[in-house]
Every structure is written in structure tokens, then in C-alpha cells.
Predict the structure.
Amino acid sequence: METIHTVAWMKQVASAARRDERVLGLVPTMGALHEGHLSLVRAAQQQCSPVVVSIFVNPKQFGPAEDFQKYPRPLDRDRALLEALGVDYLFVPSIEEMYPAGFRTRVVVEGLGDRLEGRSRPGHFGGVTTVVLKLLEIAQPRFAFFGRKDAQQVRIIEQMVGDLNLDAEIVVRPIVRDADGLALSSRNAYLDAEERAAARALYQSLDAVRRAVARGERERTQLLTALRKVIEQEPKVALDYAEIVEADTFEPVGNLRKTSYVLVAARVGQTRLIDNALLEPAGESFLVTL
Ligand code: AMP
């Protein structure tokens, strides 16, 4: 595996791959890699060569009161994990490399980013789209791989790619979970033992929605009541938001009809976690994927 630190060299590698008609796959991450990230890498390797993994803790997507400083950066460990998987290139630009003095541009997808995560984390999605557009321009991937864990982020990135006629195709992969259901996240490392146990409530709240849907419940308010009941039983978990939105518009549903997401965000101690389930119509019923 070759580690690349500069934009110029990453562009050279990408241009050479394109010239040789190779199918470059990009997996953008903020590092502190876990099985969720590695599942994206494996998916990329199935379909692409070379595979580039980027690790960049992007300051523009953190709010002033958020965890940018303390975000974990175990780079040697990450490098070893990627090396073991046989990744071709690791792109780890510095902040100055990505945002040199005088940088002034911000990419904003209107509408989709002003609610849910966007409302709880003002400016977050503008930071995400700005860095993702840069990464897509720098690495010029045919395919870029993202996790459904960040469902709103994926929807916004897909919108940007379409609106700006970008060449990359966005591939969305399932959520990888721990044995007890908790979605893997780099932020899970912040949880102490009690918080880790309590964090399971996020998964369980989505599972409660799944069971309600299986019973035939279709009404948004009823489904969210089932979700909230589970969260409220866990004193260490404070709900930030819970919502059911249509997958294409990210507008709250009335009754469940089309492909939708149940989205949940909550604080466990000081740590903010998100999770979601995908609801897809399947004949008379719905297929619910956690
Ligand atoms: P991050 O490092 O948190 O920016 O995440 C990098 C990519 O990994 C994003 O596309 C995430 O959606 C994805 N990801 C994070 N956690 C998971 C997970 N548990 N399962 C699948 N993908 C994930």
C-alpha cells in the first residue's frame, strides 16, 4: 500500500488510473477504522482496482462545540488494517493540504441538509459536501463507497453528484452492527461500559418500529411512539430526534407508503450517536432493514 499525502500526487495517481482505463474506487473516511469502514473497503475491492481509502478528519464538518479535537486518530493502526486488506492507496492529506490559506469555497445542497442532522449540527452537511466534492475531484473515482449508517449524508451526496454532473457513481452499503445491534461508529470508543450497554437502546428502538410495522402499523405517530418508549426506558440515553422520512425527499411521512427511513439520534452521556432503519414496501407489507 502506498500512502499519499499530497493532492498533487493523488491526482497524478488518479489520472494514470483513468488513462489506463482502470476502475478506481474511493472509500472516504475519517479514520479510527472499524468493520463498517472495512466492509466498504471490501465492497470496493470486489468492483474496483485500484482502491483508494482516504482518511481525513474534516474540520469543516464539526461544529465549534463538537469533538474535532478529541476525535480518535489511530493512524498506525488504521494503516495496518488497510495494509492487511490489500488496499492500494491510502490518501491522508493534512488540513493545510485540503484547505490552504485563502480557501473560500463552500458547497451546499439546498433543502435536504437543513433538518434532522443538519438542524442538530448546523453547518455539518456543508462541511461534508465541500470535502466530498474535493475528494471526488482529487481521486476521480468511478465508484465511491458510503455507508447507509449516515443515510441523510448519502442522500445529500447523491443529490450533489447528480446536480453537478459528477462522474463518480455512489455505492451505498448496509450498516454493520455489533453483536448486540449497536451500529459500529468511531464514536463508540467514547462510551464507558455503562454507556455502551445503554447505547443498545438506539437499535432496540428501531427494532420496536420494525415489530410495529410487522403488526401492520403504518401511522408515523404510532411508530414514533413505539420508538420513544424504548428510548425513555433507558435513563442514560437522551433522544435528540426521531423521525420517519421518505427516502427520496427526506420529508416526514404521514402514513408509511413509500421507501422510507426511521432515523434516530441520541446522546449517551456526552456521546452523540445516530442510527436508522430502511423501510421498503414489499407487496402488502414492508421490509425493514436495520
Ligand atoms: P466516517 O469515518 O464516520 O466519516 O465514516 C466513513 C464512511 O463509513 C461513511 O460512508 C459512513 O457512512 C461509513 N460507516 C460508518 N459506520 C458504518 C457502519 N457501522 N456500517 C457501515 N458503514 C459505516
Remarks:
- The chain has a mean pLDDT of 98.
- The radius of gyration is 19 Å.
- Residues 29-30, 36-37, 39-40, 146-147, 149-150, 173, 175-176, 183-186 surround adenosine monophosphate (CB under 6 Å).
- Residues 124-139 form the longest helix (16 residues).
